[in-house]
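For the sake of transparency, this paper describes our internal protein records without simplification. Because each token names a local backbone shape, the row as a whole describes the fold. One such record is reproduced below, unchanged from the form in which we store it.
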Amino acid sequence: MIDTHRIAWVYGAFALLALAGFVLRPGRATAAWCYFGGWLLLPVGAYPPYTHGPATPIEIMGLVLPANMLVSKAAVVAMVTCIVSLVRDHRRWLALRWRPLDAAILAWCAWPLLRAIVAGDIAGGATQSAYLLAAWGGSWLLGKLYFAGEDGAVALLEGMAWSGMALLLVAMVELVHGPLVYEMFYGRHPYQKDGVERYLGHRPLAMFEDGNQYGIWIAMAALAAIVLVRRDIKWRPGAIVLAIAAVASQSVGAIALLAVGVLAWSGRVRVPARWWKLAGGGLIALAALYVSGIVPFERIARHTAVGEHILAIVRSTGRGSFLWRISQDQKVMPLIHQHLLLGWGRWDWWMPVGYRPWGVPMLTVGQYGLAGLALMMAAMLVAPVLALVRGSLKINVGIVALIVLLAAIDAALNSFIFWPAIVAVGGLADRLSLTAPKRGADRRNAVDNAAPVLPLGPATP
């Protein structure tokens, strides 16, 4: 494992490089290079001690929520980029304006502290809120500063696509030999062996938290490149290569989300605006039902004819990981129900049963309750759903919003997220109002029509 002193030097070197970049050329391109470059090159963090063995170390948490590794890549990359931007590109900061949707990220970041005030552990809550403010709030701020509007959406899509291209060499090596690059530079990775064996060869890990995170990253990079072909035909070879790389990752869920994204973007399926509202509301309602235990999903699956038939179909595909995730969730349900509304306030709330859930929603509701889950989902979903309701999948803002929804679906089954999605939400929130713009009688038209109706406004480079 990488030691604390070494990781401090690595993160410090990144800060100096980011500052040098902004000194030479402050602006959107440098912000993109810093954010994506940091995620592709830096170590995840100074992992706490864990046992090297064949079992997956469940005490090693993802970076979505504050846990036992508060100095992490998610927080450092976002905050360093924000700080050097503030130093060298301060005029852009002076032009920042408060938007109503910014309340969503502020509420989510403040929730651990507010919850701690009620529970009486202010110091612990303040630390957790500081982490969320760095990782989530910093990413959101970068979206507002550099990736708002149509021009900003194009720049963000290009950043996603180029990040995928930068991963290709590592992906080819690790596809054949298995994950080894992280260990070469930073020491053994706790999830180096987790799900690495695939149908053909190995799933790459690169510098990510988990192979699943690599899978969604390369899939969304491929989707971004495919979309950019419409704008510039020169992206066609890159789009083809990235699509092949996404399939070669053999992350079935991420590949399915890529296929959904391409299908939606192609315009072959018209999606009425009201369906996006239903989709967003449905995700929230389904999450609430699942964690509340009102609907006995496990009993239905194992003790009804329909449930047993569905289980048989899933098992026949060879994708047992989905059923395993569900079983992990069910084991911790009694603990969740003890503090359903406010949560336990600790990252290790699941320790008494010796198992932990694997999806972000379940981890969130255990740590921060249904209230915290609602705030997190509002921060991530309200802006993209509004953008899809009011906008068009023929404009890049709509595609960015779609990518956020796909990333949110992926996070429902994994404790890792596609972090550029949080940057995207910040950019979307900066140009959206809570009140709908005036439109004619075509409000019920499908959102893939050609006329963009979002108040995009000018965007500075």
In short: The CA atoms of residues 119 and 261 lie 42 Å apart. The chain has 19 helices and no strands. Residues 440-460 have pLDDT under 50 and may be disordered. Residues 360-390 form the longest helix (31 residues).
